[in-house]
Amino acid sequence: MLLPALLVTDPDDARAGQAPRTTRDWVVDVLIFVIAVALGVFMYWLTATQHRTPAPVQNVADIVITVLACVGLWWRRRWPVVLAVLCTLGGVVSGYCVGALIAYMFTVAVHRRFTVTAAVAVLGVVTAVPYNMINPDPTTSFAESMTWTVGIIAVVTAWGMLARARRQLVVSLRDRAERAEEEQQLRADQARRAERTRIAREMHDVLAHRISLLSTYAGALEYRKGGTPEEVASAASVIRASAHQALQDLREVIGVLRADSDPGGDPGEPSERPQPTAADLPGLVDESRAAGSRVTFTSGTDLAEVPSAVGRTAYRIVQEGLTNARKHAPGTAVAVEVGGAAGDGLTVEVRNRLPVGAVRSPIPGAGAGLVGMSERATLAGGRLDCGPTTDGDFSLRAWLPWTP
């Protein structure tokens, strides 16, 4: 049961010994090999000077085991546990391989879990008992020899575990730094995607409004064939101005997209024109009136006092409501009402009569306008309701928080 447990590899070191040696690895391995051989020669000399040379057969076995243990050091990174166990078992009859055995135990402590390291250390202590009994040291007692053995094994094991803990800390810090960098990159990507989504929403709101105005003007020219040249010229001038404005809006949106995708752009350079606010609502209504829509505007609050973020959302909701009215209920009267106060919230409503019968809009749409407006209101902390009313109108009503 012991050996299979010792052979379990730590997941952190699954590839230990498989990578090619670096220059540092070669220097360390050569140094450890030289030290192990030197300790083996020293132990042989010490045994000879103390006149404790074992029997010839045991002496030859001792030398062979030591040579094999030192040669095996070149593969200690790949099979540290197996070589440590074999060297420990060979230590029952060999005292010259102490240098190699220390290197193996240190390698196991560095590259394996605590349970495996402790098992190898215990095996080293257990095998030291018969060795000290077979080869007693005349200058020390059995208890003193075992104390020295246990102390050396404990120091080597603790040293290796400390090196392992330090290495794991370095790896953990490196992984944490890489993960933080990846998370930062992910947050940057998410921010870019969110910005692109916002730009796409702005493109839908602005261009849908402009194009619906163009369609209204063009329809008026188509059905008023008997208009005077002055009227035709005036309508064509309005169409040209609206088309120019639509192209300008599209150019600005594309410029924002290019600036957002260009990492070398100037971050201090403004990438878009100032966003509309609640104070721009009268101008939006006048623009629709100029296109021939019958729009009434009522405001029960000072639009200049509305916060810019709330006002921008209110502007886009009214813009979408007017665009939908031109698409799905052309020719009907539209009422825009804005009211509220700081602390109570801002209420925005766009109401128009439902058309009689089915209306086929000449203006194509993606069907995502109301969904986008609902998302805008939700992100602003408010809510949006839309649908037919009991008196035959279609109402687009939104409430937005307005903190004082």
Major sheet summary line: 5 strands, mixed
* Alpha-beta classification: alpha+beta
Give me the number of helical elements: 11
Q: Which parts are unreliable, with pLDDT below 50 for 5 consecutive residues or more? A: 1-12, 263-271, 362-366
- What is the rounded Rg? 43 Å
Distance between the termini: 74 Å
Task: Provide structural commentary.
There is one protein chain. Helices cover 62% and strands 9% of the residues. A five-stranded mixed sheet has the order 1-2-3-5-4, with helices on one face. The protein is of the alpha+beta class and 404 residues long. The chain is built from eleven helices and five strands.
Comma- or semicolon-separated keywords:
404 residues, alpha+beta, 5-stranded mixed beta sheet, 11 helices, rod-shaped
